[in-house]
Amino acid sequence: MNPIHGLKPHEIHYTPREKQEILAAISEMLDTGWLVLSRYTEALERDAAAYLGRKHAIAVSSESAALQIALLLAGVQGHEVLVHANAFHSTYQAVQKSGGVPAFLDVDPDHHGCAHADSIARRITTRTKAVMIMQGGGYCHPEADAVRAVCADAGVVLIEDFIHAFGSSIDGRKAGTFGKISATSLYATKVFHAGNGGLVFTDDDELARKARMLRFYGKPENWKQNVAIEGADDWRITEMQAAMGVARLRRLDEEIARRDRIARLYFNRMQTLPTQLIRPLPLAAGAQPNWYKFLCLLDDSINRDAFRELMGARGVPIPHGCYEIPIYRHEAVKTKHLDVHLPSAERFCAQVCALPLHADMTEEQVDYVLTEIVHALHDDRAVLSRVRS
Questions:
Q1: Phi, psi of 164 (to 5 degrees)
Q2: Strands (DSSP E) along 203-341, which ranges?
Q3: Which strands make up the sheet holding 157-161, listed edge to edge?
C-alpha cells in the first residue's frame, strides 16, 4: 500500500459497536422526546466524573461554556486571571465575558509549553483571583501539583484548562484532577469527544450546584419554576451529544493506547534522524499524554509556514500546533496589549508544529513522514530558511 494513502493530520473513527450504541440511543430519544438534560447527560456526567475520580461533572454545550462557567464559579469579576500566553483565544474571551482581566504567563518550550510553578508564584499579586493553567496538545502540565500548592498558599483559585488533555496524566494523576475547578472540551477533533460540548469538574458541592444553574439560565431546578436566581445563559448539551460521549468514553483508554503506539514510534525513530532541525517536544518524567497532537519544535532558522507548505506538497499534512501566535497578539485584542512581550512564549508559538497522528496510522506511514521531513529539511533548506513574515 502506498504510505501516503490514509495519511491525515487526524481522523475521527467510530467502531461498529459505538455506532450501534449511538444509533440506539438516538432512536430512544426520538421515541421519548427527551432531547436535552435527561438520562444520557446524567450518564455522561456520572461516567466522566468516575473516570477522573472527581465528585461532580457538569456537561455543557461547548468548551467556551465550560471555561466561562469555571471562571464564574471562581468569582473573577473585576479581578486578574493569569493565563498561559500560548492559550487559545477562547480562553481570553471566557475571561473577559466572565468579567475578569486577563494577564499573561510566559512559558517554557521545553516544559510542555507551560509556565513554571515558580514563575507563576512570582506573578501572583493582590489583584489575582485565579490562575488558569493550560495543558496543550494533550501534554499534562509537568508541575501541575506544584502549581496547585502555589495557588493554595496564595489563596487564589486554580482553574485547570485541560481541553486537549482528557485521559492524560502526570506521575499517575490524571489531568482534570488538579484544579479546584477544571474544564475540558468535547469538540469533534479531541481524543475524547461528542461532536461538541464541554465538561466542568469540581469536588465542591456548592460549586457544582451553581454550575448546573449557570448552564440553564440560572434556574435552580431544570424543569420546574421558570425563575432565574443567577444571571447565566443557555449552555445545555443535547442528549445526542451526551450519548456520543458515553460511547466514546467506554473505549477511551483503548484509543489512547493506540495513539501512544504511534507516538512512541515517532519518538524512537526521531532519535536517529540525521537532522537537528526538528525535535519532539521533550516529554517530562512521569508524563503520559493522550497524544491529541504529537508536538515538535523546529529550529529557529526554519520558516514554519514554508515547511508546512512544502510537506503538504510531499503528501504529508502538517497540522497546526498549539497555538501559533500568543493570544495577546490576536487581531481581535492586540491593540490592548501593545506593551506585552513574552519572549519564550513567542519563540514557542513560532517553533511548534505537529506531525500527523491518529489511532489508525501504520508504522510504514510514520517512516514515510520522517523520511520526507529529512528530505525537505536538507534538500529544500534554502526555501525553508527564508525570513519569517
A1: -95, -10
A2: 278-280, 287-288, 294-298
A3: 56-60, 198-202, 181-185, 157-161, 128-134, 80-84, 101-105
Higher pLDDT, 334 or 232: 334
**By C-alpha distance, which of 245, 225, 226, 220 is closest to 166?**
245
Torsion of CA 199, 202, 206, 210, to 10 degrees: -20
Tell me the C-alpha distance between 49 and 56, whole Å. 6
Coil, strand or helix at 33? coil
* Domains contained in the chain, CATH given: 16-107+114-250 (3.40.640.10), 252-384 (3.90.1150.10)
Please give the C-alpha separations between residue 277 and each of 63, 304, 384, in angstroms, as whole numbers.
Answer: 35, 11, 11
Residue 230: its pLDDT value, please? 63
User: Which pLDDT belongs to residue 1?
Assistant: 46
Residue 82 three-state SS? strand
- Whether 6 has a pLDDT exceeding 70, the answer reads no
Expressed in percent and rounded to 5, the helix, strand and coil fractions of the chain are 40, 15, 45
Q: Burial level of 272, CB count in 10 A (0-12/13-18/19+)? A: exposed
What share of the chain in percent tops pLDDT 70? 94
Coil, strand or helix at 4: coil
Q: What is the pLDDT of residue 59?
A: 98
Specify the pTM.
0.94
% of the chain surpassing 90 pLDDT:
83
Q: Is 132 helix (H, G, I), strand (E, B) or coil?
A: strand
pLDDT for residue 166 is more than 90: yes
Which class for 115: exposed (0-12), middle (13-18), buried (19 or more C-beta within 10 A)?
A: buried
Place of cell 494523576: 173
pLDDT at 222 over 90: no
Using pLDDT thresholds of 50, 70 and 90, give the confidence band for residue 2: low
pLDDT, position 297: 95
Which residues are 170's β-sheet partners?
173, 287
Residue among 1, 15, 87 nearest 326 (CA): 87
Contact 186, 245 (CB under 8 A): yes
Contact 311, 372 (CB under 8 A): yes
One-letter amino acid of 42: E
